[in-house]
Amino acid sequence: MIVNWTRAPLISGKFQAQRYNLTNTYSNYSSIETFNATGPSDFADLLGVYEDAYSVLEQDAGYILSDNLQDRSARSGLSLAGWKPGRNMEAQAVEWWEFDWEYAWTPVGGPAGPLMLSNLICGNSKEQSSEEWSIINYVRNEFSEDNNYVFDQRGYSAFIQGEASTFLTANDTRLLLNTIVTNISYSDTGVTIYSKDGSCIDADYAICTFSLGVLQHDAVAFSPELPYWKQEGIETFLMGTYTKIFLQFPPDQVFWNTSTQFFLYADPFERGYFPVWQSFDGPGFLPGSGILFVTVTQEQSYRVEAQDDTQTKEQVLNVLRNMFGAANVPEPIAFLYPRWTLEPWAYGSYSNWPPGTTLEMHQNLRANVGRLYFAGEATSTEYYGFLQGAYFEGQLVANLIAGCLTSTNLTSGNCTGGGEVHYEELYGTTDTSQLNLVNGWLVSSNQTIGDV
Fold it and tell me: Of 196, 243, 198, which Cα lies nearest the Cα of 346?
C-alpha cells in the first residue's frame, strides 16, 4: 500500500497519481484535535501564531536568496520572526507539526529526549536545517497547495510498473531484480558495474540513483575513489528518517472521532514523541478499517527502529491512553512499521540541506564523474525530499545521456571529459547569477512570499 501525499501540478499534463488513478483523499489540515498527557487540550490557536512567523520567514528567505545574503538555520529565522517555543511543549508540538513533519529534521537538529529540550532552550544544539533552501524548496508555484493522501493498496508499483511498461516487456532480461551492486568502476570511456553474485555489466554510460544514505554509508565501492569534491558534496547533505507506525484496532472498538483526520499530541518531556496521528477509519479513506497511525522522525525514528515491535507498541499505546483514556483504548489486532535506517538499500528516507549550503555545493552532489551520472531526490535542487524531484532528475540525466548516445560528436558538451559542471573551490553564498540550469535550477526562482 502507498501511504504518502501527492500534489497536483499547476502546469499542463498529468502527474503519476492522476495518470495511474491512485486512490487518494484530500488532506484537510484544519481537521485536527490537540492533546497533551492529560487528555484533550485545545492549543490549536498556536498553529496560527506559528504560521504568522512562518510568513515572515518565507519573505526573509526570499531576501537571502535574491540579495545574496548569508544563510542561517531555520531556527534562527523563526526566532527572528518571533517564534520561540522554549519550554512550552504544546508550542514544540505545533512546531513539529509545521516543520519536522515536512523535512524529517527539526529546525535545529540534535538529539532527542530531555537533552533535546535543553538544547532547544539553551541554543547549544547543532543547527541542521537551512532557512534559505528549506523555504525555497517548499514554496514553489508549480504545484497545488492542496495535499492529497494516497493510500492505494497496489503500492508504488502501480505507477512504477506503469512507467516501466512503456519500454520494458514482460520478463524483460534487461531488468535485474534482487541484484546487489557492490562495486562501480568508471572512466571517461565507460562504466562497469559489479554485483554480489559475481556478475558484471559494461556500459557506455550509467546513472547512479542510490539514496544519499547509501552513498554516505559507503555501501558501494567506487573505482577510482570518488574525487574529493564529490565526497564533500555527499557528506555535506543530510539524510532524514520518517517512520510511520500503523495500528489496527477492532472496528467495533474504535475510540477516536473518525470524522477528524489528524490528532496532535504534546508530550510533556520529549519533543516529537509520537506527535502526529492520522485516522484511516473515516470519510474518504477506509471506513470501518480501525486503522490509526503515528509518525516519528529522525532521532525518534532511530530509537523506535532499534526497538522490537513489543516495546514500541507499548509506548504508542501509553500515549494513546493518555490522549483518549486508558479504559477506552484496546489492544490492537495488527501492528507494523518500517525500519528505514536499517534498510541497506535506503539508510533513511530523504535528504535535507544544512545551513550555509550553497547551490554550488549541491551541484557537486549532482555532478557526474566520468561517464557515471547521478540522479534521485537528493540531487534535485528544487524538489529534494519529494518524489517529483527524483522523477525530474532521472528524466533530466536520461535525456542528457540519450543525447550523447545519438550525437555524432561525443567529445562535445556533457558527453565526456568534464561533463556536468562541478566546483573544486566553494565560497560562502550563492550569487543570483548561479541560479541557472547548469546548477540544477530548472524553474524560475519566483518563490511565493508570505502575507506580511
Answer: 243
Residue 357: pLDDT over 90 = no
SS3 409: coil
Q: Which cell numbers in the block locate residue 443?
A: 524553474
Q: Where are the alpha helices (DSSP H) in 173-227?
A: 212-216
Question: What is the 3 state secondary structure string of 43-59?
Answer: CCHHHHHHHHHHHHHHH
352: β partners: 238
Q: Which three cell numbers stand for residue 113?
A: 529526549
User: Which DSSP category does 412 fall into?
Assistant: S
**Would you say residue 451 has pLDDT above 50?**
no
Residue 149, C-beta contacts closer than 8 angstroms, at least 6 positions apart? 3, 4, 5, 24, 25, 26, 27, 278, 285
pTM score of the predicted model: 0.87
pLDDT tier at 371, thresholds 50, 70, 90 = very high
Query: For residues 214 and 347, is the Cβ–Cβ distance under 8 A?
Result: yes
Element (H, E) at 276: strand 276-279
pLDDT of 321 > 50? The answer is: yes
Amino acid at 70: Q
Which pLDDT value is given to residue 144? 62
Q: How far is CA 394 from CA 66, 130, 207, 400, 408, in A?
A: 28, 25, 8, 10, 23
Cα 362 from Cα 186, distance rounded (Å): 21
For residue 410, name the pLDDT band (cuts at 50, 70, 90). low
How far CA 28 is from CA of 3, 103, 266, 279, 296, in Å, comes to: 16, 19, 20, 12, 20
